[in-house]
Design brief:
Elements: H1 15-28, H2 31-40, H3 49-63, H4 68-76, H5 79-93, H6 95-110, H7 118-131, H8 140-157, H9 173-179
Length: 191
């Protein structure tokens, strides 16, 4: 059972902005200060302050789910490892996404089923609804938006091709060690 069902509604891993926000955090080690500086310097490059603040809050919410060691690693890592860490943070922020990643994405990859479809998400949610009644309370539009966000993020992480074929996570051995048990969130054969 998942403690609190929360589905993502903001799309994208936002890698360039996340890199800037991580660098701010490495400098000051204080998320409140990071948010203030990110808004002040318009990290999102958006004219509307409310929208910028909302996206920055979302990025910080995800990044807070990385350990200090992972954040420090992210700061100097290559792009593949950075995208992977953002996916890991996303899965930790939204536990239902983490379950989908481990129970569907990872398992399909292990069994050499290379195609991931929207119906895989729908079937997963139906199975989970049998275990947790609160899933039935999630509206149709929220489910649809979450599905879109999850697939967009899988594409941006480099784990899904344009034809929805699963692609192996291409990460360094150092990243594998730092990620630890959450490597099950990835399409990867060797753990």
């Amino acid at each position: 059972m998942i403690e609190k069902i929360s589905l993502p509604t903001i799309s994208g891993l936002m890698l360039p902005q996340s890199i800037k926000i991580v660098r701010l955090f490495v400098e000051c080690n204080n998320w409140a200060e990071v948010k203030a500086k990110a808004v002040e310097t318009n990290v999102m490059q958006i004219d509307k302050l409310a929208s910028s603040s909302r996206y920055i809050s979302y990025i910080i919410k995800n990044l807070k789910n990385l350990t200090l060691e992972e954040i420090q690693f992210f700061d100097g890592a290559g792009i593949e490892d950075q995208r992977t860490l953002l996916w890991i943070a996303f899965c930790r922020t939204f536990p239902i996404v983490g379950l989908f990643a481990s129970e569907v994405v990872h398992q399909k990859f292990l069994s050499y089923e290379k195609t991931l479809s929207f119906s895989d998400w729908n079937e997963f949610l139906s199975r989970k609804a049998n275990e947790d009644d609160s899933i039935d309370n999630i509206g149709k539009e929220t489910r649809k938006k979450a599905k879109s966000v999850i697939f967009t993020n899988l594409h941006q992480a480099g784990f899904l091709s344009s034809s929805n074929e699963l692609k192996a996570a291409d990460i360094s051995e150092d990243a594998k060690k730092i990620i630890g048990k959450d490597i099950v969130f990835l399409p990867i054969l060797s753990i």
